[in-house]
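Researcher: Please generate the 3D structure of the following complex. Treat every line as part of one assembly.
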Amino acid sequence: MKIISVVGARPNFMKIAPIIRAINSYNKSINISQPTSHTSPFIFHLLVHTGQHYDYEMSKVFFKDLELPEPDIYLGVGSGTHAQQTGKAMIGFEKVLLKEKPDLVIVVGDVNSTLAAALAAVKLHISVVHVEAGLRSFDREMPEEINRLLTDAISDYLFTPSTDADENLIKEGIPKEKIYLVGDVMVDSLLFNKEKAKKSDILAKLGLTNNTSITNLSSLITDYALLTLHRPSNVDFKDSLAEIVSALVEISKHIPIIFPAHPRTMKNLKESNLLSFFKQGTINQGEKIDQRIYLLNPLSYLDFLNLEMHAKFVMTDSGGIQEETTVLNIPCLTLRNTTERPITLTQGTNTLVWNKKDRIIKEAIKILEDREKKGECPQLWDGRAAERIVSTLQNEIIK
Ligand code: UD1
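Model: Done. Output below.
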């Protein structure tokens, strides 16, 4: 049995890592030295990286942190318009498929590389597994929503993280038999790496503690909020970006904000002349300054997880961080007006604040006054989603 998994952009790496680990354990569990007619087949697995994300901080450091094997094949797609990126990934991946002739292709998430790989495979009549299927923001202006809809429509096996995703797929007419509720692979990575992340020295490096081996909150000197921002709808328009920055400036008068910035955001802050509101570098103890929004380069997986665990609250427009904060029980303000992960609103710690200054400030103040939303962890977000995926593959697909 030959399976090719595909990654391309930062949020793919933590989703594929637990699946590869589960495939390796499966391979170890089968007895190929004495095969019988009932022995499950060995899975020969190849990892393809399209190269949609190519910077060290956006890609390679994640391979290191997540202990991912080096990609077997790298397509070097790089940046470009959506059509260029998707097209280049399709052309490159089709060549791989023609040469390798896999039985199955696994794609994860909703980035351009996800759709490109699924399209190339399905046209060659190769079965496609989509992990994290069924999520919908119902906002077709989001490129990811188009990627989600199309990938789900052409995939053969749809592995979903939560029951709302199953319901979305059924409403779209996808046969029940194709849908498998397995839980969230992003949470698998989070739970698997939590202890390792606690050992990161990022807090000390940023001047947030004087203790380099900090592992608990009590030795934390400063409360801080953590921010990520990269959605085109927030950062590609000067007015939205300026409104968000003005809310951040207000909040930062009460609590420092740590902001590891995506390259797209960094570029747009520069172009919009908004960089003066940020301080680049670390916090010195006892420092008294007006602008306390600390701008950093993108962080590694473990460093970011550490900052997330110890934050007073998180502000983000990312998808995955809404899930991670729910599992970590950290309040999350999502700077969007929709979410494809509604379970983080209904069960988790997430609140939508859009890019509206008043809403962002109002909800941040609530948290600062310890009136934050309380949440609980959704069903099957237990660190075993990848195991369930591989046992489904074994029982239903590769038998
Ligand atoms: C992509 C995903 C998005 C995901 C995000 C996480 C799509 C449609 N979007 O968005 O869902 O949340 O990744 O990071 O697939 N750049 C670099 N170095 C890199 C990669 C990008 O400098 O390694 C810069 C380039 O200027 C590029 C811009 O960032 O034009 C955007 O990159 P791109 O891959 O097009 O989309 P993201 O915004 O990263």
